[in-house]
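Students often ask why we bother encoding 3D structure as a string. The short answer is that it lets us treat folding as translation between two languages. Here is a chain of 268 residues written in the first language.
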Amino acid sequence: MAETRTPNRPIYRQVAEQIAEEIEAGVLPADARISSERELAERYGISRMTARAAINILVQRGLIVRRNRSRAYVAQPKFRFDLSSPGGLHEQLRKAGVEPGAKLITAEMLPCDGLSPKVTQALALDEGASAYHIVRVRTANGEPIAVEDSYFPARLFPDLLDFNLTDSIYGILRKYFAVEPAGSVQELEISLLDAEWAEIMGVAVDLPTLEIWRQAFTADNIPFEFAHDIYRGDRILFIARTASPESFLAGSGQLWQQALDNLQADGV
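And here it is in the second language, the structure alphabet:
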């Protein structure tokens, strides 16, 4: 079988890309066994070390998983998450036919002086105000895929901690407080999962992640959430739609730009 090679590009990356194309085209379906290093070396005319490097790239991308140390298999399809949608992860998973879930880690109310300046500014909290601090591990079909570390102004959501916080929080806000998420300003950063969060999620350290700092607003431009989310890059495919800055800011004055400036301040 003839293979296309690209000059000046490492062979192991070319091999990884060809295997990735077979996975994406369905030639290699979920749970199919990937050829061994020896088999790949024979197929592509490369060394076993090069074959191992190609497999490692695909493992890092979440396209294949290792089992029993040596064997590699095609991973289950990634969950899709639209970063442009004001709807939460719970709603998007459900629409995709995936069972969403959450494990509650922290649920507390903190006074303004117990919050960081970043949180009080993002939520426009007055002196003496309070905010709810909620940390959850999010799951999809029972698999941990994200950690959400969120703050909500207590003045907007009395007794929020009395509700079932393993359900959709955005759903609770809509149903019981008539708050409809209308948009958000988000800052994204690629990182590796550290030991603390890995232990909380019950997954391996150093998984690729997408960290998101989010300031969410109602249709009336009232900030109602400030959150730091960590999503597993090996299990989620992220989608984002774009719009011109003019349309993004239309009808909102400078609030959106101010929110973006707040997120970028102090390196956050």
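Translate back mentally: The CA atoms of residues 131 and 153 lie 4 Å apart. Keep this in mind for the problem set.
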